[in-house]
Each structure stands twice: as structure tokens, then as C-alpha cells.
Amino acid sequence: FQNYIPPKPITPGTKILTMGSCFAQNIASKLQSIGVEVDSYGLTENINNPKTLNHLIRVSLQSNPQKPRNHKNDYTEDAYLEQIVGKKKLNKLSESLRNCDIVIITLGVACWLECSSSKKTFFVKPHKCNTNLEYPEGNYKLKRMTVADVKVELKTLMERISNINPNALVIFTVSPVPASGFDNIEANSMISADLMSKSTLYCGCEEYITENPQQAIFYWPSFEIVRGLSPWLEFRSFGTEDGSARHPSDVLVDAALELFIKTEE
User: Fold this and answer.
1) Contact at 8 Å (CB) between 16 and 39?
2) What's the angle, vertex CA 34, arms to CA 255 and CA 225, rounded to 5?
3) Helical H runs in 42-179?
4) In the chain, which stretches have pLDDT less than 50?
5) By percentage, how much of the chain surpasses pLDDT 70?
């Protein structure tokens, strides 16, 4: 993994924003422990794919803290996101995007939730939300992304970030944390669905970065390090601290992040 060294060095004075899947929190905690200034944008784990992350960034950049709320109950994707996230967090994300040196985005899954009748995007199913919005009737189904879909979303996402912060380096990584469930998605098993999802994200990132060498964009192999090394280690690789079979052990996360951070030597 020595070839995966970010072109912009990470120092205690570097301003970093991490966002995406829950693994973004692991990255933020490690960076903060060595004195790096980090804003970690933690949200529901459902906002961890290229499509919904793109939507999140767009809404945050358009958010106006002075504008009064629209109290209509009709569902719109933007109103929905604002209600489950809140304007304060959206404005914080917008400010961090404008002022950071590096944006680290962890991608968790290559699928999104869609209503069959309205074709609108959702982040969690309506019955799991406590908003007062009226939701469209219809079946809510996970839609699988293709590599081409991932590349389209990355292109739009990069355009949005570079328009407001042209000097920021964007680092993409695929989360090593296994997905918790893929109900009603076309796959033979949960394991197959997870590997298919991670592979799609990896291929989309690698192809997009290769095709756009002029952009300040970088891929870091956190998935490959954690999933690839864990079978060869003598200690328990997952669940040491919290007993969860999905969460990488701190010692493995620390080892992976230390390799990533060693850019000054």
C-alpha cells in the first residue's frame, strides 16, 4: 500500500472534513488524536452512497439560515433531508466544505432507496421517520447502482466541491464496514450483495480518477487494507471493543490510518 500516499500532506494545521458512512467517524477520531483539525459530519448511515451524498451536499450549499421554513406537508426530497438533518447541520457542512483543505468521503453502499410511483429518492423508509411530511404511496425499493452511475455522481459531486473550494483535495475511500442489510435488492445473499456493492464503488472510483487526472482527487484503500489484511492477523479483526461483527477493531483501524497519515516522512 506504499503507493497510496496523498499528494497533499496531512499535518496538525490541515483542516479536514470527513463525511459519508460510519467509517468517517473512525478516520476523524484517529486524525483528532494526533492533533489534526477535523470536522466530522456524522449522519444516518443511510446517507452513505454517491447519490444521496451528492444530494446532501447540494442541499447544504443551497441552505439559507435566514429563510423561514416551509410548513407545507407535501413531500419533497429537499424538505425531507432538511427535516431529518436540520438546518444547523446543513449550514455547518456548507461552511466546512468552503474552508477545508481536504475532504475525505467514505462510500458505504452502491444503492439508494426509491419510491416506485414517484421515482423520488429517500434515505430511510417512511415508517422509520418521524417527520410530518406526507409521503408518496408506492413500494419503496433499493435500486442498485452501476459503475457508470457511480461515475456520474462523482463527477457532479466534484463539480460542486470545486466550485466553492477549488483548492480542496478530495479523498474517496470505500468503507470496510459490511452493510447491515439489503432488503428487496436483487442478490442471492447478503454477502454477495455487500461484495457487489463494494466492488461497484471501487471500480467507479478507480475509473473516474483515472479518467480525470487533472482533478484534485485521490483514492485511499481502506476497504482493501481492513478486509484484505484481517484474515492474516493473529488478533480478532472485528468487534473487539463493542462485540459487533461489523465493526473493525480499533487496533486494525489505527494500523490502517497510521499508514495513511505517514505522508511527512
Assistant:
1) yes
2) 20
3) 50-62, 77-85, 87-99, 147-164
4) 263-265
5) 71
Q: Residue 101 in contact with residue 16, Cβ under 8 Å?
A: yes
pTM value surpassing 0.85: no
SS3 of residue 247 by DSSP: coil
Phi, psi of 224 (to 5 degrees): -65, -40
Cα separation of 100 and 145, whole Å?
29
pLDDT tens, residue by residue, 184-209: 555 567 778 888 889 999 999 999 99
d(CA 81, CA 76): 9
Residue 90 and residue 63 in contact, taking contact as beta carbons nearer than 8 Å: yes
The separation between CA 229 and the C-alpha centre of its own chain, rounded to angstroms, equals 22
DSSP, collapsed to helix, strand or coil, labels residue 121 as strand
Q: Beta strands 121-122 and 111-115: pairing type? A: antiparallel
Q: pLDDT by residue (tens digit) across 172-187?
A: 989 887 776 665 555 5
